[in-house]
Structures are given as C-alpha cells and as structure tokens.
Write a structure and sequence with these properties.
By secondary structure, the chain is an alpha/beta fold. It is built from 14 helices and six strands. α1 packs across α2, α3 packs antiparallel against α7 and α9 packs across α10.
C-alpha cells in the first residue's frame, strides 16, 4: 500500500492521531480477537484515514462523471447516441458518468472530440481524470475487497450525512473488532487467513470517518434481530451492545431500534444506506450490499423510494431514548 504524504512533525497531526486512537480504543483491546498482523493493518489504515485531507479519488471520479454528463447534455446527445458513435456499450458510458468505473485518457479524448471541446476544457478534464485515478488507502487491499465495496468506502469517507437501515447485523461503522471478525469469518469460509484479516482491518479503519473534522452525521435504524442474534457468542454480543450504548451518547450519532412488534415494514427487502454530501452538486446516493457486490442507486425516482422507506422505518422505530433503554434491556438478557 502506498503510504500517504504528511507532515509527521505537525502537532495538529499527532493530536488527531491521538484523538482517533482514543475514540477507537476498542480496536486494540487485548480482549478482542485480532491477530498481530490485523492490528498493524488497522493502525496503518487509521493513520492513512487521519492524514487524508483532499477529496478521495472516488469523489473526484464522481465530479468527472458529472461533468461529462453535463457536457453530453449540453451537446444535446443521449447516452445511446454517444455510445453508438464511439462503438461503446451504453452501460460503459453510464458507468463512467455515474463514477462506478474510471476512464482512460484515450477514451476521455474520444469523448472530448465527440463533444467538440476546446483545448483548455480538455486539459482540465484530463487533469481531473488523472487525480481520480490516484490510489486511496483502501485500494491497497483490492484483492480482498469487492469493487462496489471499495467505491462505497470512497463515497462514505466524503459523506456529510450517513443514513442506514440494518436488518441482520450491526452497521459496520458501529461494530467492535471481535464482532466484525466473527461476521467476516462466518461469511468468508474458504478464504485465506490474510484476506480475512485485511477485510477486518478495512472494516475497522472505516470507522475513522467518525473522528473526521467535521464528522458526518450518522443515523442508523437497527432491526431488533440485529440485537438478538448472538454473533460471536454471548460475551462478544454483550460488548457489542455496550459499544452501541457508548456511541449513542455522541451528539451526531442517532441509533434507533425497530422492534419485532412493528410487524411488516418497508425494510423487509433488506439493508440499505443513503449518503448525502456537503455540496448540492454531489447528489445523494443509495447503496445496497450483496453477497457478490453492492449496487448504487442515484436516479431521482430510485432515491425517492429509498428516502420514503427510510422515513417510514424511522417513524416506526423507537425513538433514540427508548432505543437506548431497549438495547440496555437486551444487554441484560446476555448476562
């Protein structure tokens, strides 16, 4: 993994590392089931997250895609028309415009020619494309991660607000290391030990986004099943629920519980997340994870459905204070 550049002599840098370490102290607790190699990876990734100050390559790729879409619309061309002229599939152009894949300079030149762009505008796009291809910290673990998940991490790192409904497991940003390890080991049967360790390390390093300045707002609805399923065993679940109670005290984190008594609800199709960004130019994204990779949704109609489902779930769920009491009650059931 390419090490990011930073001024290690800066007191501000080391203060941020110190604060990150304190807020994520549970990652290094000797009670937790992390290998030595995994602890090393986690620390290096936390340092990388802490040092990140410029937009992630994922966000730059999204800016580039939005600009290319704007240029196509300015030229009054449809995706089908441009794809046919260039001999591409429509999905290739769509992936470029929605930032789910990067673009080579040769392809960028062909698009610039298609849109009759002048030299300065072409140069600006080439520079943006070059920056968008730089490696982010999580891309050093590409062999252990699915491409959509890598892309999601990039968007999550830049989000101003993160909303999620979790149907079966605790949201990744709220997991303890031993809980995360138990989940990843359960779903990665047959994988090499080093791949499993890297996945755990990345899962935990993502949590550094909560210590970012300014930190994102995080609002999570957890199905009651998440609290009742004893992943990793009784002791692991007890510490995980304690961690939820800890995090629920933070002003920018809201945790709600959707109890079984609600019956049928809008989240029966599965877990999903919605990311909002600081600038209006960066439209919200919805993301659904899956066994072989996640799916992003950015069309207005799709987003509207996800927002409606989220609001329905938040209305049906217990309020934050009642949810804290509910989690405490479940915690007592674990002894």
């Amino acid at each position: 993994m390419k090490e990011p550049q930073s001024n290690f002599a800066s007191p501000q840098f080391w203060m941020q590392v110190h604060l990150t370490g304190r807020k994520l102290h549970h990652l290094h607790d000797s009670r937790h089931f992390l290998t030595s190699a995994c602890r090393t990876w986690v620390f290096r990734l936390i340092i990388s997250c802490t040092m990140a100050t410029s937009p992630s390559p994922t966000m730059l790729r999204r800016q580039l895609g939005a600009e290319l879409r704007r240029l196509r619309e300015r030229a009054q061309r449809t995706v089908a028309e441009v794809a046919k002229e260039l001999g591409w599939s429509e999905s290739k152009l769509s992936r470029i415009e929605t930032a789910t894949s990067s673009i080579r300079n040769a392809d960028l030149d062909r698009l610039a020619e298609c849109y009759s762009l002048p030299g300065p505008e072409r140069s600006r796009l080439v520079n943006l494309a070059t920056l968008s291809r730089q490696r982010a910290w999580w891309e050093g673990y590409g062999d252990a991660l699915l491409d959509p998940y890598e892309t999601y991490i990039g968007f999550e790192a830049e989000a101003a607000s993160i909303f999620a409904y979790d149907a079966s497991i605790v949201n990744g940003l709220l997991q303890t290391s031993e809980y995360a390890s138990a989940i990843i080991r359960a779903v990665a049967v047959g994988e090499r030990a080093d791949v499993i360790s890297q996945r755990v390390a990345v899962r935990l390093a993502r949590q550094a986004v909560l210590t970012r300045e300014p930190p994102p707002k995080l609002s999570v609805v957890l199905d009651e099943a998440v609290l009742r399923r004893p992943i990793g065993g009784t002791d692991v679940m007890r510490r995980q629920l304690m961690r939820l109670l800890e995090l629920a005290e933070q002003p920018l984190i809201t945790i709600q519980v959707l109890p079984f008594t609600v019956g049928a609800h809008k989240g029966l199709d599965g877990s999903f997340s919605i990311l909002e960004f600081a600038t209006e130019a960066d439209r919200p994204l919805a993301y659904c994870d899956g066994m072989t990779g996640g799916v992003f949704r950015s069309k207005s109609d799709d987003l509207r459905r996800y927002w409606m489902s989220l609001e329905s779930l938040r209305s049906a769920a217990l309020g934050p204070q009642d949810s804290t009491e509910f989690i405490s009650e479940v915690l007592r059931s674990y002894g």
